Amino acid sequence: MFKIFRKNHTTANIELKDNNEMSALKLAASKTAEEFSVDEQNIQSSIFASAAQDDNFIEERAVFMFVTSDKKSQAHTMTLTFKDPVAWGNDRTPIDYLIVGMFPSNTPQNDVDLLTEKITNALHDKADQLDDIKFKGSDLNKLNQSFTD
């Protein structure tokens, strides 16, 4: 019953003015800071560092990155979808889902890995529905909530 009142942390069908990875990363940092009430500059630094480390591609259309904050006590996710795929990384993989994990500062890597696996499994299970989900806010909200349920 209490899940009805949860904040959804999703934005569907985004049109980027400059449809490139840098614009997507800046938007993700801004949205993450706004959604989770944390400092945007710190989040932007974290997101850029996460993107520089490794591209964690999922289902050949999503990328997952994570950030940490000492203002959070549990993990959350935020999912953004793009109307037009963004060419991502050195291989310019077309990405239309960007998922940001927000973790408490002291989160062990194992917990990050477990959430990454849960997100990967959820996207794999819904692979044939992802084209439709990315445009439907309520379906995107349910998908995003499933990552941390």
Short descriptors:
Mannitol-specific EII, Chain A, five-stranded mixed beta sheet, 149 residues, globular, disordered N terminus, 5 helices, single chain, PTS EIIA type-2 domain-containing protein, PTrfase/Anion_transptr, 42% helix, alpha/beta
Task: Outline the structure in words.
The chain is an alpha/beta fold and 149 residues long. It has five helices and five strands, in the order βααββββααα. β2 and β3 form a beta hairpin. InterPro entries: PTrfase/Anion_transptr. This is PTS EIIA type-2 domain-containing protein.
Topology:
Layout: E1 10-14, H1 21-36, H2 40-53, E2 56-58, E3 62-69, E4 76-88, E5 93-104, H3 109-125, H4 130-133, H5 137-148
Parallel strand pairs: 1-4, 3-5
Antiparallel strand pairs: 2-3, 4-5
Helix pairs in contact: 1-2, 3-5
Protein name: PTS EIIA type-2 domain-containing protein
InterPro entries: PTrfase/Anion_transptr
Organism: Companilactobacillus futsaii JCM 17355
Task: Kindly summarize this structure in a few lines.
42% of the residues lie in helices and 28% in strands.
Secondary-structure content class = alpha/beta
Give average pLDDT, whole number. 91
- Low-pLDDT stretches are 1-6
The name of the CATH architecture is: 3-Layer(aba) Sandwich
How much helix is in the residues? 40-55%
> How many beta strands in the DSSP annotation?
5
Q: Within the CATH hierarchy, at the fold level, what is the topology?
A: Mannitol-specific EII, Chain A
What is the H/E string?
A: EHHEEEEHHH
Strand content: 25-35%
Major sheet details: 5 strands, mixed
Output the CATH class name: Alpha Beta
Q: Given the C-alpha coordinates, what overall shape results?
A: globular
State the separation between the terminal residues, measured CA to CA: 13 Å
Radius of gyration: 14 Å
**How many discrete domains?**
1
